[in-house]
Amino acid sequence: MSVRQIDDIEKLKKINQALISRVERSMDQQGNAFSLFQTAINLENRVRSRTEELRATMRRLEVSNIDLVAAKENAERANLSKTRFLAAASHDILQPLNAAHLSVSALAEVQAGEEGRKLVRQVERSLETMEDLLHTLLDISKLDAGVVEPEISDVSLDQLFSSLKSDFQPLAAQKGLKLKFHAGNAVVRSDRTLLRRILQNIVSNAIRYTRKGGVLVGIRHRGDRIRIAIVDTGCGIPEDQHEAVFEEFHRGTGSADADLSGGGLGLGLSIVRRMTSALGHPIAFSSIVGRGTIFHLDVPVVVGTFTDPMALLGEPERPRGYGLFGTKVLLIENDIEVLEAMTVLLERWQCTVKTATSTALAMQALGDTNWIPDIIIADQHLDGGDLGSATIAEIRDYLGRAVPALIVTGDSSDAVIRLAREAGVELMRKPLKPAQLRALLAHLLA
């Protein structure tokens, strides 16, 4: 039926209304679609904008990372350069310091008056403080640069504690303090030298900051570890300084109660933290002001039987006397001041001395076959790039005998220690302590 055939006006109105509603719905749908289309375009623009921002940020981060890597490499190179510089500088500074030590020792032997001997002792203490500071700064530099590689082995705490007690007993007795060590038969896995330095610094601090009572070093088994405890009855450490004590040049508020006549540079615990980090040995402490402090160090324990190779050698025979009268010494040293000072000192000990500054001159000094040295003392770094260890080996080959020998050097590297071990030669660090030198010479000649 067509619209024209519809006579009912109401019916026509309804049809018209329905058509209008359909058209309006259609228009609304088209409007919604257009709105969605516009929204999609806007979102796409926003996504594109954010993507560009992210890309720009990533590019900036990449540039920053490159800069950070470059800065890190520069810092590492600077740190290694600092270490090499300090090593070289310390060697150069230790040379005149060694000459001063030897000269002061020779001067002490000719002093007849108490006033002169007192001045000599003051100079010796000042030189020892300078020496300790130089060695400490070099140690810190090496540890910070990460060039210290621990040599892990089985370490007998009984032998280590006995050595520390021998070192510190006179100082404790002088202050009227009790000093006790208890190790049992404990054996740990650690670097013997670094572990000794750690305990040495802590015990030294404990004695320095204790006026009455004493210091106890003991152990306690804790599973697969041994806890080494250093207990003192000193002035204690305030809680607000518990972190600061590990910082360089920090000296606690108890300094007024401490005996700082031996130096007290405030570097001991700074080195302790670096060494324990290098070894992976956790360290901590507790303290009560006015009552004392307990440091404890956790070290891996060795299970089973143990034989320390150092124990097989036994205790070195102690010389009954100096025994240096008439001893023929070949002294090889390229620093003229050290050479002259050591010559004077050896001659005062009634030794006959021939000197050289290089391998060639040392061989020339041996041209007289009627003069064969009883002992050789050589610096490690000589003129012309010669090494004392190689010079000693060449002299021994020339003479056809293993002449007792001693390397004295300011070079603290592990390479020198290995060379001395391989050559079967004793090693002493500069600056030399004359009394130790004289005792070692007597022992080698025995």
The rounded Rg comes to 39 Å
Mean pLDDT: 78
Helix content: 40-55%
Can you count the beta strands? 12
Low-confidence stretches: 305-322
CATH superfamily of the largest domain: Response regulator
Largest sheet: 5 strands, mixed
Distance between the termini: 141 Å
Beta-strand share of residues: 15-25%
In short:
This protein has 446 residues and is of the alpha/beta class. It has 11 helices and 12 strands.
Q: What does this entry look like structurally?
A:
Its EC number is 2.7.13.3. Residues 88-303 form the Histidine kinase domain. It catalyses: ATP + protein L-histidine = ADP + protein N-phospho-L-histidine. Keywords: Kinase, Phosphoprotein, Transferase. It comes from Mesorhizobium zhangyense. This protein is an alpha/beta fold and 446 residues long. The protein folds into 2 domains: 90-148 and 317-446, Response regulator (Rossmann fold), CATH 3.40.50; 154-310, Histidine kinase-like ATPase, C-terminal domain (Heat Shock Protein 90, 2-Layer Sandwich), CATH 3.30.565.10. 54% of the residues lie in helices and 16% in strands. The chain contains 11 helices and 12 strands. It has helices at 9-109, 114-145, 157-174, 192-208, 268-279, 309-313, 336-348, 359-365, 388-399, 414-423, 434-445; strands spanning 152-156, 178-181, 187-191, 214-222, 225-232, 283-288, 292-300, 328-332, 352-356, 375-379, 405-409, 426-429. A 5-stranded mixed beta sheet has the order 2-4-5-7-6. The chain has a 5-stranded parallel beta sheet with strand order 9-8-10-11-12, with helices on both faces. Strand 10 (375-379), helix 9 and strand 11 (405-409) form a beta-alpha-beta unit. Helix 4 (192-208) runs antiparallel to helix 5. It starts with 8 loop residues before the first helix and ends with a helix. The model is unreliable at 305-322 (pLDDT under 50).
